[in-house]
Write a structure and sequence with these properties.
The complex is a heterodimer.
Chain A: E1 4-5, H1 16-22, H2 38-57, E2 66-69, H3 72-86, E3 92-96, H4 101-112, E4 116-120, H5 130-136, E5 141-145, H6 159-169, E6 174-178, E7 199-203, E8 214-218, H7 244-282, E9 286-288, E10 299-304, H8 309-320, E11 322-323, H9 339-343, H10 348-352, E12 354-358, H11 365-384, E13 389-390, E14 395-396, H12 399-402
Chain B: H1 7-17, E1 33-39, E2 44-53, E3 63-72, H2 75-90, H3 95-98, H4 103-109, H5 118-139, E4 160-162, E5 167-168, H6 169-178, H7 184-191, H8 207-215, H9 241-244, H10 248-269, E6 272-280, E7 283-290, H11 291-294, H12 298-313, E8 319-322
Parallel strand pairs in B: 7-8
Antiparallel strand pairs in B: 1-2, 2-3, 4-5, 6-7
Helix pairs in contact in B: 1-2, 2-5, 4-5, 6-8, 10-12
């Protein structure tokens, strides 16, 4: 059975062109780019070229503003802790309740060490309230960190609008955005569309580069003290011998992404829309999470009342070879269901019954047809064995088991 | 996290959801015992029903002949429910004998469960217990007199802190207070938490953090972060009340009336309008609407018309911010 990979918000297949671009930098040109001899300078040049290519992708002319890290989690940690350490007199942070843990947990950690953190809520579609945002800004606000697109629902926040309001209120407040889910999926022109953003995190493996390479855009003059100290690399802002091969790979992957933006916005979007429409038609009592908000073109997050996500994933894989993910507590290794869907006031059974399909340019119409064939059957099967499903009326039965505990 | 289920667990699950003959999905109509356990909030719930062959004179000699379940839950929750029914049906058990089936029996039958899934097997045993209690009520059996102990489940729901022993944050918090636990070794001795892999000791939200939150922090654990120094006076955005002696309420009323009388009429001529989103000190957050919304000169309009008018008529320190 062919595996259908529909979990591209988790990670992506490394593009063959990327593998090819990286290949010379393992066994042939393996030199430390900091060394002085000629072959090492070639490695350094490959890295410089990559940095330039990535800078051009973002529409900036100053490549030193791109910092290479090991992953977006590191980028987020560096942005938040780095800013906190550079501006110790400010001790208030604004973020949202739906951030990725790489921001959310860092903010909680700041909270534990004496910072005040405002977690902005969202409405049922996942949108922020602009008035609540304005009210959250304070004279002692250090930094605002708001993601570009949500990893679970694909909901896009109006980052530049929020950043502009922040800067106009107080230019000293730093604005960070975690753009892990949008870099490589949507065109991001930092100088035109994101001119008020100071820091922007991204990760290679979300756009067909390997895991283990990420980046942080650090606008010139942004105060940020390093986390990894002990090397002159990245101008002293991130010590550690550079991962030359993966840096080259990430630049190649971004170049390919740019060539595929059109495809992502048309063909992939159409596939997602078709999947969404069919799921809504064929499965009763299903809801599309974030339906009323702007979303990334590849993501569909649906909640099926009365069934549990992990058991849906198990059947999708075992019977149909389909990879997807869920916000159910059982899939996290912890007993906590998706904080994102909970923040959107999705009812508990629907949170546990959520499934996320996330596509990429490698998905075909046949893949989506297979999901369309499989998914409604699986939901119907599981509803037969669910105490939350009224078999006769074919509708959710909620009053019963909830009252037990 | 990737699945680490035994083949038997996966097979029982797949057989059950495909409705293979011999599986036990369903609900017995008019059952002799019904028990429910779990909740939607924790992501697992089980309704367990059974039928007995009634003994003509002594209800304690009833024998369970049929068991069924409806389960909302993950792969292991459904497989564990299936296992429970098989274990009960394969021997002719009285309901009281059935109580001897433990979650360990279920785990063994499934040829092991990943440790974070052990609670799924507990759920089966708890639902069985509830069903037996229900049967006893229906049949007039006094379980307590027979020495059967039906204890309530103590584990609270919530984020799991100690993964090795599946102990949750609310449970550990409660025990820290109840048992006056002051150190990590004390916690481990009392409730096992943190006793195996020890990785939950000093992680964010781990045992030390729970202790700090319960008893107050002893020292700054985060050497990486500087202790926040006292707030130095941040340049204040000027408050209106000093000179103009307007209260914030009067100030915003005045802003609104100036907008109504001096700004709106001009914008409306061009089919536009302005909406005040919020007022913070002398910062006025506005949104242009109607024809102005799409206008390329919107920012100019706000600065030259709205801000200038407010500066002139209300307070020179006012700044208008486009939302």
């Amino acid at each position: 059975m062919k595996t259908i990979y529909a979990d591209n918000n988790a990670t992506t297949q490394v593009a063959p062109e990327v593998v090819e671009a990286m290949a010379p930098f393992f066994a042939e040109n393996y030199y430390n780019p900091s060394s002085m001899y000629e072959p090492a300078r070639q490695a350094a040049k490959a890295m410089t070229d990559a940095r330039w290519a990535i800078a051009r992708h973002f529409g900036i002319t100053d490549p030193e503003q791109i910092l290479f890290t090991s992953c977006a989690t590191e980028s987020n940690n560096l942005a938040l802790f780095g800013a906190a350490r550079a501006r110790p007199n400010r001790r208030h942070v604004v973020t949202t309740a739906v951030e990725h843990p790489a921001v959310l947990e860092v903010c909680r950690e700041l909270g534990r060490s004496g910072y005040e953190v405002t977690f902005l809520g969202v409405d049922g579609d996942g949108n922020l309230d602009i008035r609540e945002f304005i009210r959250a800004l304070r004279p002692d606000t250090l930094l605002v960190s708001i993601m570009h697109a949500n990893n679970e629902t694909g909901v896009i926040f109006p980052v530049e609008q929020l950043a502009r309001i922040t800067k106009e209120t107080d230019p000293a407040i730093l604005f960070h955005t975690d753009a892990t889910q949008t870099v490589g999926k949507l065109p991001i022109r930092l100088r035109e569309e994101f001119r008020s953003v100071d820091l922007l995190s991204f990760s290679g493996h979300k756009f067909h580069a390997p895991k283990g390479i990420g980046g942080l855009y650090l606008k010139k003059g942004t105060p940020c003290r390093p986390l990894l100290i002990g090397g002159h690399q990245e101008e002293g802002r991130r010590g550690g011998t550079e991962n030359v091969a993966f840096i080259v790979g990430m630049a190649k992957a971004l170049q390919l992404a740019e060539e595929n933006f059109q495809d992502e916005d048309t063909r992939v979007r159409d596939l997602r829309d078709k999947l969404e429409k069919t799921v809504e038609e064929r499965i009763p009592h299903v809801q599309v999470n974030g339906k009323g908000a702007p979303r990334t073109p590849n993501t569909l997050n649906v909640s099926c009342h009365g069934v549990e996500g992990e058991s849906m994933l198990m059947q999708l894989m075992s019977d149909y070879g389909i990879c997807a993910s869920s916000g159910s507590a059982c899939t996290t290794g912890s007993l906590e269901p998706s904080h994102v869907l909970r923040a959107m006031q999705v009812p508990f059974t629907a949170v546990h019954g959520s499934v996320r399909f996330s596509l990429s340019r490698y998905n075909t119409a046949a893949d989506v047809d297979r999901i369309i064939e499989a998914f409604p059957k699986i939901v119907a099967n599981l509803r037969k064995s669910s105490p939350y499903w009224d078999q006769e009326r074919n509708e959710p039965r909620l009053e019963h088991v909830d009252s037990v505990r | 996290m990737a699945w680490e289920y035994s083949q038997k667990t996966v097979r029982l699950f797949m057989d059950a959801v495909h409705g293979k003959p011999g599986t036990h999905v369903g609900e017995i109509e008019d059952p002799d015992g019904i028990g429910e356990y779990g909740s939607a909030a924790c992501g697992d719930a089980l309704r367990f029903t059974f039928r007995v062959r009634r003994h003509p004179t002594d209800p304690t000699q009833d024998v369970i002949t049929e068991a069924r379940y409806l389960t909302f839950g993950c792969t292991s929750a459904i497989a564990a429910s299936e296992a429970l029914c098989i274990l009960i049906e394969q021997k002719e058990l009285t309901p009281i004998e059935a109580l001897k089936i433990t979650n360990q029996d279920i785990v063994d039958f499934l040829e092991g469960l990943p440790k974070q899934k052990i609670h799924c097997s507990v759920m089966g045993a708890e639902a069985l217990e509830a069903a037996v209690y229900n049967w006893a009520q229906r049949r007039g059996v006094d379980l307590r007199r027979l020495g059967v102990d039906l204890h309530d489940d103590e584990q609270d729901e919530g984020r799991i802190v100690c993964k090795c022993f599946s102990l949750t944050e609310p449970f550990i918090r409660r025990k820290i207070k109840e048992l006056n636990l002051r150190t990590i070794p004390e916690i481990t001795d009392a409730i096992k938490a943190g006793g195996a892999c020890m990785s939950c000791h000093h992680v964010p939200g781990g045992l030390q953090d729970l202790l700090d939150e319960a008893w107050g922090k002893k020292e700054d654990l985060l050497k990486i972060l500087p202790t926040p120094v006292p707030l130095e006076p941040v340049p204040v955005k000027a408050t209106p009340k000093d000179e103009s002696a307007l209260s914030p309420y009067q100030f915003s009323k005045k802003v609104e009336s100036v907008i109504d009388e001096n700004v709106r009429p001009i914008l409306r001529k061009d089919g536009g309008d302005v909406e005040i989103i919020d007022i913070k000190d002398t910062l006025i957050y506005c949104r242009l609407s109607g024809a102005c919304q799409e206008c390329v000169g919107a920012a100019q309009t706000l600065r030259m018309l709205v801000e200038r008018t407010l500066k002139d008529l209300v307070d020179e320190r006012i700044r208008v911010i486009r939302v």
